[in-house]
Amino acid sequence: MSLSEESMRFLEEQIPELAEAAVRQAYWDALNAGNSVLEYEDGALVEVFPDGTRTRIKQLPEQRKVTPGQTFKLQ
């Protein structure tokens, strides 16, 4: 089965929304299975437990804004 260019473009446009839904579902599946998950919150890495408690793990460095095509060196 071959798709038209228009159909392919339409399907490709759905990828970000589908990916977001998959990540959200995996988050809740992990918590429902009794596991903890990690989140970014107010500049810190936070562990979230199934009972809703949150533990601050580490303060993270300030986020770096990157422009497409920009290059920089990681330290």
Number of helical stretches of at least 4 residues: 2
Query: Assembly type of the shown chains?
Result: single chain
**Biggest sheet, spatial arrangement of strands:** 1-2-3
The major pleated sheet works out as: 3 strands, antiparallel
Output the structural class. Answer: alpha+beta
Helix content: 25-40%
Number of strands: 3
Unreliable spans: none
CA radius of gyration is 18 Å
H/E topology pattern: HHEEE
Mean pLDDT: 92
Compute the separation of the termini in Å. 48 Å
Sum up the overall morphology in one term: flat
Beta-strand share of residues: 15-25%
Describe the protein's architecture and organization.
- Helix content is 36%, strand content 21%.
- It has helices at 5-13, 15-32, and strands spanning 37-41, 44-48, 54-59.
- It is an alpha+beta fold.
- Strand 1 (37-41) and strand 2 form a beta hairpin.
- The radius of gyration is 18 Å and the shape is flat.
- 0% of the residues are buried.
- It is built from two helices and three strands.
Quick summary:
This protein has 75 residues and is of the alpha+beta class.
Topology:
Elements: H1 5-13, H2 15-32, E1 37-41, E2 44-48, E3 54-59
Antiparallel strand pairs: 1-2, 2-3
Quick tags:
3-stranded antiparallel beta sheet; alpha+beta; 3 strands; 2 helices; 36% helix; 75 residues; single chain; 21% strand
